[in-house]
Amino acid sequence: MFEVIKNGGWMMAPIILCSIVAMAIIGERFWSLQRKRILPADLVPYIWQLHRENKLDEATIRRIKLSSPLGRILAAGLLNRKHGREIMKSSIEEVGRQVAHELERYLNALGSIASITPLLGLLGTVDGIIRVFSDIAVGGMGDPAVLSGGISEALICTASGLTVAIPSLFFHRYFERLVDDHVVRMEEESLRLVDIMQGAREDV
Where are the transmembrane segments (predicted)? Predict the structure, then answer.
């Protein structure tokens, strides 16, 4: 493996760096975007139970806010539940936009890696081909070993760039879709809570 990296030339360094960053982002997003961490299944029924038992004080709402991204959104509505349906909805929507933005954290960087690494591979390919032609200009076509070094560098850089870019692009699209699904579900849960608190729905 070290020989392959060495033969790939100087452009392998930024490609390897991109691969490390991409793997770190993918691992972090898999952990952070777990459904149970974003959307606790029993949160709305729990809040409704507290509401019926008249236990929704500030300390309880603070704990709900810190429990999950969904809890943060619902807590914004709970703090404004006495101000009517529209105020409650607008406060939920405002915090919801902030939470949605935070769920997309690092996805731009992952998308950039997916776009940049093929270009880095192409740049390494061009550098290798330039070296081949420079060697031809100096020594002619007589030594195949001299030419093979530049061609090898070109092919290794291209393959390495694509090897990093393809999974990065796949996971970038996957996480974007996952965030969209979480946001839609959080909107549904938030509207459900608003209906319950404002008397438009009787139970959970």
Answer: 12-31, 106-126, 146-171
